[in-house]
Amino acid sequence: MQQLTQKLGSGDMIIQDVPYPQLGKGMVIVKNHYSIISAGTEGSTVVAARKSLLGKAKERPQQVKQVIDTLKKQGPIQTYRAVMKKLDAYSPLGYSSAGEVIEVGEGVTEFEVGDKVACAGAGYANHAEIITVPINLCVKLNSNTNLKDAAYNTLGAISMQGVRQADLRLGESCVIIGLGLLGQLAALILKASGVTVIGIDVSEAAVKQAIDNNVVDLGLTRNAAGVEEQIQNITNGYGADAVIIAAATSSLDPINFAGAIARKKGKVVVLGAVPTGFERDPFWYRKELELKMACSYGPGRYDLNYEEKGIDYPLPYVRWTEKRNMEAFQNLIATKRIDIDYLTTHEFEFEKAKDAFDLVVSKEEPFTGIALKYDLEKTISKSKIPTSENNKLGKINISFIGAGSYAQGNLLPNIPETNEVGRVGVLTNTGTTSKRVAEKFKFQFCATQESDVLDDKTNTVFVATRHDSHGPYVLKSLEANKNVFVEKPLCLLESELESIINLQSKTNKAVMVGFNRRFSPLTTKLKKAVGNNPMTMIYRINSGAIPGDNWIQDLEIGGGRVLGEVCHFIDYLTYLNGSLPVKISASALPDANQLNDTLNILVQFENGSSGVIGYYANGSKSLTKEYVEVFSAGMSATLNDFKELKIYGKGKPKKDKILNQNKGQKEMVSAFVNGLLTNGKAPIPFEDIVAVTKASFGVLESVKRGGQQVEI
């Protein structure tokens, strides 16, 4: 299938073949008939991508700060990789489309193959022939619906939410500042609701378009004489009951102008991208105006449970969600209470999408809505896509399932480039990532289906997906008789662990978890110094806070930070003392959200060693992230952030300091591949991996029991 993509670094925009999307639980696959270009949001993205690196930096000061912070903490190599991953990635464009359902996923009951639907969401409703969409970002349409109009779905819902925030009644008045797509749509919705609509724009053409199509009761250019007086006249001298700002500008004029024209105790709704640093006096202060923000399509937006898991908000308590806003917008179109045909000023065949964006950037002629039309007669293949002429196979032949930021920065670059190692296929959730990774790292193809990367060519699978899929992919890899490397954690469920143990014992295939810290060069020196005596250990992690709505904190998807991250540190202490954990106890700082991400853990080991893990999400970012202390047989050692090691014994302490932080990722990948080449085994004993995983489950059990000790 084909999809429109752009590289942030070069600004290059191309339509390219990418893998057919995967059909997940609670999702549908849709064949697009139309998609709409958002000149505001997408136009600014395209313009930024075509700027120089300096120009990009000026537009994104916050991201520049993040780069500097990464440079300080991780060094130039990791920072360079992270930046280049962003700049070289194929970024999808588009977030509003309409088409026909061609496949339905597990658990989907409200859609059937053949249904006409309108879709929403960046990363979902892309400019692509085929898309995959969660059910709460998709609405069912009548069979006779005009799909070109329906493709305005996302933009209509955004405008609808702005109107709802204004909370206007029949006969009241509203000024809309900015008559682009969102402004015109908001005006149409308000007009259909019996509200007096006044439209303002700096563009005479936009105002004329609104007047000619009977969208506004009064249309004025911003610099027209007597603008404020005319608004006072049409509102009987009261001022506007509400002002919706649908403009996109860095100027303070819209917010200050809104204050001037709103009535006392009126509302101002920010729908567009404008600064809100208004002047407190005279208007806002004296009128006691209310400033409100419109959250994109409506309630449910940015909520993982709603958008990805399909968990709806109960209608009696949340009347208008983003999906219900989309349904209401589509109903206005279907019943002809609004007519949006005039908004589509340009239509391009999908193959000419680049020309459409050139029009947006150049602004050589007036435009409002730009529709991309897809070839419905074209047959779409599910075949894997060749990405390299390298057809060489070796003793170890690797495929990747999942290839996000961590994999691209720490796993893929470190695969040894030898004749004994072949690179087969890449499969990820998004076809654009699969394509880019396969090309960059010289894999033979990017894949569409799991069977493509679990075929006879591949004998070793790297799993670098979200945590909830680790266990299932490990099991599928073992069932296909493959060696498997999986990013931590091994799995999220104890039942999955038992299945993995049983299957590994039958296949005797290598199973490796990405516990990289034990492979750090400074760790090697530390372990040599402490020897094999029983020891006491302290590992303090200044992890920093992660919001509760982040996928890592979601117990079903990320497993929480204990299973997702603390397993690293249990493994590290296991490696240092050379024996397995046997007992564990843990107490967490009380937290209303029960995140269990600030806690103390005591681990006891077979050889009598003990270790304390302090995992803290409530500290200062200025403190180093990881700090280790070890005490054994008259000697002590400290390891600070994998950059500085100090050994204390008799005489002067020995110091070892490196410029760039090294947590052992390169050494880990090399050790895994070399282990397979040498004896077919992973460098971490499978019994260590099992014990560490059980200990991680034990931490959660101990917290649940109020700190009671749990046997592993």
The low-confidence parts are none
Strand content: 15-25%
Number of helices: 22
Number of strands: 32
Distance between the termini: 49 Å
Chain-averaged pLDDT: 92
- Structural classification: alpha/beta
Our Rg estimate from Cα atoms comes to 29 Å
Spatial order of strands in the largest sheet: 31-30-29-28-24-27-26-25-32
Largest sheet: 9 strands, mixed
Proportion in helices: 25-40%
Which term fits the overall shape? Answer: globular
Pfam family, one: ADH_zinc_N
Domain Alcohol dehydrogenase-like C-terminal: 182-298
Cofactor: Zn(2+)
Keywords: Metal-binding, Oxidoreductase, Zinc
Features:
NAD(P)-bd_dom_sf, 712 residues, Bi-domain-containing oxidoreductase, 32 strands, alpha/beta, zinc
In terms of topology, how is this protein built?
Elements: E1 2-7, E2 13-17, E3 27-37, H1 41-49, H2 53-59, H3 61-88, E4 90-92, E5 96-104, E6 116-120, E7 130-134, E8 138-140, H4 147-150, H5 153-166, E9 173-177, H6 181-192, E10 196-201, H7 204-212, E11 218-221, H8 227-234, E12 240-245, H9 253-261, E13 262-270, H10 280-287, E14 290-293, H11 304-307, H12 322-334, E15 344-349, H13 353-362, E16 369-373, E17 385-386, E18 396-401, H14 405-411, E19 421-427, H15 431-440, E20 445-446, H16 450-453, E21 460-463, H17 470-479, E22 483-486, H18 494-507, E23 511-513, H19 521-530, E24 536-542, H20 560-577, E25 581-588, E26 599-605, E27 610-616, E28 626-632, E29 635-640, E30 644-648, E31 654-657, H21 665-679, H22 686-704, E32 710-711
Parallel strand pairs: 9-10, 9-12, 10-11, 12-13, 13-14, 15-16, 18-19, 18-21, 19-20, 21-22, 22-23, 24-27
Antiparallel strand pairs: 1-2, 1-4, 3-5, 3-7, 3-16, 5-6, 6-8, 17-20, 24-28, 25-26, 25-32, 26-27, 28-29, 29-30, 30-31
